[in-house]
């Protein structure tokens, strides 16, 4: 059975699947929580089960941006 995407909730088929952070994502849905940059298995940074880009992660702005998102 194909799992739902952690971002959009639609079914993820094996050809477009990214398995990260204990979840499954469409390739296009696996993007940074803050700047929306598309990520992949090699360049993502996981934090709190969500993907972030290197720049955001390094800046240490996660705390602030999490507030901004809510
Ligand atoms: Zn999706
Ligand atoms: Zn980012």
TrEMBL record:
Gene3D superfamilies: Cysteine Rich Protein. GO terms for molecular function: actin filament binding; metal ion binding. GO terms for cellular component: focal adhesion. It comes from the Eukaryota. InterPro entries: LIM-SH3_domain_protein, Znf_LIM. SUPFAM superfamilies: Glucocorticoid receptor-like (DNA-binding domain). Residues 3-63 form the LIM zinc-binding domain. The keyword Transmembrane helix does not apply. Keywords: LIM domain, Metal-binding, Repeat, Zinc. This is LIM zinc-binding domain-containing Nebulette-like. It comes from Acanthochromis polyacanthus.
């Amino acid at each position: 059975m194909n799992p739902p995407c952690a971002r959009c909730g639609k079914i993820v088929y094996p050809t477009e699947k990214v398995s990260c952070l204990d979840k499954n994502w469409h390739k296009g849905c696996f993007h940074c929580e803050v700047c929306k940059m598309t990520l992949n298995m090699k360049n993502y940074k996981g934090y709190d089960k969500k993907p972030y880009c290197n720049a955001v992660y390094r800046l240490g702005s996660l705390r602030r941006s999490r507030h901004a998102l809510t």
